[in-house]
Amino acid sequence: MTKTASTVPPAANPSLDAKHLEEAFAIFYSESQKLEAQQTALQDKINQLSTELQKSNQRLAILLNAIPAGVILLENNIVLLHNPAVLQFLPHLSQGQSFELPSEWQASIAPGEYLIGSNEERNSKPQKTVQVIRIDEGIRSYIQIQDITANISLHQQTQRENRLTAMGKMAAGIAHQFRTPLATALLYSSHLCDDEVAPEMGKEFAQRLRKQLLDLEKLSQDMLRFISNRPNKTILTSAKQIIDEAQASIQALFESKAVGLEMHCDVPSTTMLLVEPKSIPNALVAILENALAVSNAKDKVTLCATVETKKLIISIEDQGPGISSTIIDSLFEPFSTTSANGTGLGLSIAKNTIEAHRGTIAVENTKHGAIFSITLPIAQAA
Ligand SMILES: Nc1ncnc2c1ncn2[C@@H]1O[C@H](COP(=O)(O)OP(=O)(O)OP(=O)(O)O)[C@@H](O)[C@H]1O
Ligand SMILES: [Mg+2]
């Protein structure tokens, strides 16, 4: 009987083990070579990205240093960094301090705009208007401060030039408006000089003369209001107060014509506007006067006021015939009138006032009349 080889345990083969080990080492070596190569490539990438980041940081720094606007980066309202331009507005700003706008900066008409410096103090820097934009992103905030004095004066200049052009166009209109009351006033004054006029007639002529002169004075004042530039002494006034003032001025006239004046004022009492006293109520009264003029007894005029995204929106709607197509395109131009007694300055002054307060005015004919829509920027609201 022969013994089979399978029953004999395989004898250890040192040369085979060494070969396996060698192969394993070779694999290990080649894998670690690959890993090393990948690590080097990764390191190169990191180096390249760091250089790029450094370059873009440099570019950003150059850009931040070059732009005329002031830029501040805050973290939890603490100044992290700022560019040099910001120091022209906030000379004492430094890193690490808590950020707030100086209390002496006066809020201007539009939200986010401030008047800095003072015209009143002698030798002080001229007054500037700056715009502050704040963007909050989590704990970080970005503040941009920009001098917009030049933009504003350009805007005012353009507005003024437009008005002067309009004044030029209306020279003939002015002559026409002044001619009749002036001729009448001259007539009355010549009667007054006549020795033969009885004393009681003389008094009558003097009164008529006075009325003509008062009309002329009102006309010239209206024209001056039209040409005036921007609201000067503005004060923080509640939107409600402005609307109440307008209503109080005109309510009696509505009652005397038996025309209803419906007020829907859906405005919080905390809604404040920066306005020149009386100017906005006067503008609203001019629109309400027109609405009353085209209304019949038992008609109603509705004034609605609401607040929408930092704006006060006022609409005034009547049930009259609507704006005549002959006048609608020139409605807000001075001396544009269809009324025999009107001067045609009411709406042009109202538009001027509203735009000087950075607001807008528009008109539309509805099925049953006309609707005027006014927007005004809110200075402060809870
Ligand atoms: N609610 C309205 N419905 C219809 N027409 C209107 C309305 N409001 C204004 N108008 C038209 O616009 C014209 C200009 O109005 P504006 O207030 O500027 O001048 P006026 O009322 O004619 O004169 P005044 O200077 O005395 O106000 C009016 O003559 C009238 O034709
Ligand atoms: Mg009018």
Short key terms for the protein model shown above:
Beta-Lactamase; Heat Shock Protein 90; 382 residues; binds magnesium ion; 7 helices; alpha+beta; 5-stranded mixed β-sheet
Account of the 3D structure:
With 382 residues, this protein is of the alpha+beta class. The chain has 7 helices and 13 strands. The chain has helices spanning 14-66, 149-169, 171-193, 199-227, 239-256, 279-293, 346-356; strands at 70-75, 78-82, 106-107, 113-116, 128-137, 140-147, 235-238, 260-265, 272-275, 300-308, 311-317, 360-366, 369-377. The strands form 3 sheets. The protein has a 6-stranded antiparallel sheet, with helices on one face. The chain has a 5-stranded mixed sheet with strand order 8-10-11-13-12, covered by helices on one side. The chain has a two-stranded antiparallel sheet with strand order 7-9. Strand 12 and strand 13 form a beta hairpin. Helix 3 (171-193) packs antiparallel against helix 4, helix 5 runs parallel beside helix 6 and helix 6 runs antiparallel to helix 7 (346-356). The radius of gyration is 39 Å and the shape is elongated. The model is unreliable at 1-6 (pLDDT under 50). Adenosine-5'-triphosphate (ATP) binds at residues 286, 290-291, 294, 318, 320, 322-324, 327, 331, 336-339, 342-348, 370.
